[in-house]
Design brief:
mainly beta; disordered C terminus; about 100 residues; 1 helix
């Protein structure tokens, strides 16, 4: 019986950087799907930047099995230790803004 691996998704939204919000999904990893969108909208004299990066994982940790998806970031480092810097400042028990 293999233990369940936990991996993270990371997103932020705000004025040039914003505050990171970390969420944790409990799933083992072999297939990695990563979607990233960034929009910048003029607002008075400042720019509002909204950036979203979503990485979805499935399967057992450490491999990728999708030929059409860029899986360069899908590896064992994405499991448990992923986004260590964010994890250290954002408790992952709830997927809520800081």
């Amino acid at each position: 019986v293999r233990a369940t691996q936990h991996c993270l998704t990371y997103q932020y939204s705000g004025i040039t950087g914003g505050t990171p919000t970390a969420t944790e999904c409990g799933s083992a990893v072999t297939t990695c799907y990563k979607y990233q969108t960034t929009t910048t909208t003029p607002a008075s004299s400042s720019m509002f930047k909204n950036s979203l990066t979503l990485t979805s994982y499935s399967g057992s940790c450490g491999g990728c099995n999708s030929a059409w998806t860029n899986c360069n970031t899908c590896n064992t480092d994405q499991c448990n230790s992923a986004f260590a810097a964010v994890r250290s400042v954002a408790p992952l028990s709830l997927a809520l803004p800081l």
